Amino acid sequence: MKLLYEKPKAEDYVSLRLRSGMGNKDLERSRKAITNSLFTVSIYDNEKLIGFGRIVGDGGITYVVSDIMVDENYRRKGFADKIMKEINKYFEESTFEDSYICLIANSPADSLYNKYKFEYLPPNRCGMLRKQNRIK
């Protein structure tokens, strides 16, 4: 196993999305997304991408944790935790006290994120997603 901070190939990213249950994404849009990521963590078993996570944002104020995923055949071995440790290290070294750092978690992954200073929003705040119409 090797952990790298290099951006994976879009083909490997899409393949891992499918193997992790995250769903398919367009290859060209995936290529653009990976290229524009601020920080990436990739875990490989030989040449096979088996774990991945990234940070997107503006690099100054707003940061979003995205795409924390592990191949279904490699789960429950601490790989998601390793990815989050590296992401947390990036935040500790590269962000500021007033930085806005967020993520949207699927249950039960929220328990992992709690270990890295992520908390549920207080009652006077709410998370929202924009409803997207299909773009052709």
UniProtKB/TrEMBL annotation:
It comes from the Bacteria. It holds the Pfam family Acetyltransf_1. Keywords: Transferase. Residues 1-136 form the N-acetyltransferase domain. This is GCN5-related N-acetyltransferase. InterPro entries: Acetyltransferase_Butenolide, Acyl_CoA_acyltransferase, GNAT_dom. PANTHER family: FAMILY N-ACETYLTRANSFERASE, PUTATIVE (AFU_ORTHOLOGUE AFUA_6G03350)-RELATED (PTHR43233:SF1). Coiled coil: none annotated. The lineage of its organism: Bacteria, Bacillati, Bacillota, Clostridia, Eubacteriales. The keyword Transferase applies. One of its GO terms (molecular function) is acyltransferase activity, transferring groups other than amino-acyl groups.
